[in-house]
Amino acid sequence: MLGYGAYTGEGRCFQFWQDFMSCVEKNSNDKKTCIPFREDYDECLHGKKLNARRATIQAEMDKQKKNGTLPAEVTELLGRNKF
Known about the structure:
Layout: H1 14-26, H2 35-46, H3 48-67, H4 72-81
Helix pairs in contact: 1-2
């Protein structure tokens, strides 16, 4: 039952998995060629790069708030949307 999502017909990362497997099949002697495909699949599953980026942005915003240098537009958006 590979490829089926919990609530949909196809899992959200299934296309990334297919791309990775296709690369592995075509390049069975050179696995290094498929590293970018594997990284894309892992990112889809776990979101580690996205979470690291969010943490970096949040840390910078906290720093700017503390220093009083956060732009007024950002402060206004934060007040409206309650991120």
